[in-house]
């Protein structure tokens, strides 16, 4: 049990220890002749055991064996990682419980050394995590706890880092794969991908890969009557050119393109109490099938674009790195909103003589354009002192545009948004938008002092200053106006990590670190009082952690464990402020929350070919005060002191067993299984749910079973899998607002919720070839 005074114990006397959680047998970057894994978590190449922080590495082979295709699939592989997922690309990442459901992200996403996604909190970045396809990714590194010193803003919960394969001048290489999958109660999908690496001489090489995936749907649209309406497809590729004229100088150019096209969202209607599927078109009959009541075809598309150049020059004693990147992320969606509370108002304006003949869709467009430049100077490896210093600059522009568009229920044809009221013509019923810019300049330094052969201390600091400007507006029937806002904030983050090697095969460490998420400007409405909050502050986390890593000399048994306490202040929330014209919604700062827990990973190899792994986390994350801003306002968020933080199960664990054996010369086979256990977890804070049922919303726990098997020949491979073998029904996210289908258009007036769930039983197979 985690004691309430955990933080004090960590500071007062707990042994310095190190926890690096990994899967050494399956990770891909190993030194020749050893199983040591090379990682870049501290912006320099190190073996895993040298890194003084809590880190999980998931290698390319493990991703493929586990059929892990998206962020929602990684949760079973990483202790302390939770994902609130609705669809590919519409995902919130939660590490160590750092989540209040706000608009900003608490986990920073990187591709190699390039940050991706918005640094600000004015573009709903919290639910737009970078969900890149993992084909031809060397590994995924997940750094838990604040990483503000080296990774800057939005890393107060941790960092998710995709490390791509480098082009190689050593030899020609190519491989291709194709696969098929079917989901219980739904459709069938297929995939294809290919990679090629071509040396263009001794100093130049190019590597390119492409993929296409169709994921089958399993949710039916009722009202519009479409089967498997949440089917989606994703496609894209990566290209990389490496020029290395000498051993100490290289230039790498790379590009990443990915498209995600989806139909109706993978959320479905549920009963608010039992959480069973709810069929609104059939008067609430619970058939067990997942359905979504819509009267207009939903759809969304997401585009990722990233272009980058990396220069590295080792001039003796130190290496200079320059990383330049430009990225663009867009999200566009059309969602039927005919069942929300505005339906009567929409009909009164657009069909005053024929009520309940008009529906409406919600249009949501988001765009992030981001430029980054980092210069970094790192010393060579040293037995006494190693250091890294650098500077970072980013400038991004974001645009959020939202509106409602009416349509005829009979024909499902969109209608003009222009309408005339009292002789006055308006172009739109309502529009809202935020055009914003974010500019940040930072400097950082970190160093590792080796005090003897077995003890070292790593410490660092970073000062970041950001300036933001925004134009924000909410205009309904011509009422409202655009307002500009500005903010300027500076934050200093730091970390200290002593590490002691007990032996050649065991080490302990302690780490104290600070991370932050930027604040920003607010919309100032007409008639706002003088004390209206013109901006919201940065929220910060200070983390205290300690752990132990140990293994036997033959690596037949490894243990990684950590214990942590997060002290979270000025938590970012949504709230309202009263004005003479009524309450206005703004971003605001709550007060305090905390998260504490234990994470561990144990690997045993009792006999040749057999690997048993157990990873799990216990997390106790809760509010220390109501989600009411210290500056005043309404508790729009709906959280009360003592409430657990959203989408953080107290307990989650995965037990994995794999067996590999040689079936003939040049042919190896494997079989494996996972058992995933997840305890009950809270849903989104919801004042409406608490008012209706007297308690906070909660999602039931669940367990799943996955199976896999395959054969690898010299050039060919075949694999099969069955994920969620028992077809467990479980939710992954829960809506916070009730809705009701109007009875006049074939629905029910009984309130229900929307929710997203884990995928039903999915069975698939793939075949591949390599050269």
From TrEMBL:
Q: Where in the cell is it found?
A: Cell outer membrane
Classify the protein's membrane topology as the record does: Multi-pass membrane protein
Source domain of life is Bacteria
Does Transmembrane count among this protein's keywords?
yes
Q: Where is the signal peptide?
A: 1-27
Which keywords does this Swiss-Prot/TrEMBL entry list?
A: Cell outer membrane, Ion transport, Iron, Iron transport, Membrane, Receptor, Signal, TonB box, Transmembrane, Transmembrane beta strand, Transport
Domain TonB-dependent receptor plug span(s) in chain numbering: 48-159
- Keyword flag Membrane: yes
According to its UniProt record, which protein family does this protein belong to? Answer: Belongs to the TonB-dependent receptor family.
Q: What is this protein called?
A: TonB-dependent receptor
Gene source species: Sphingomonas colocasiae
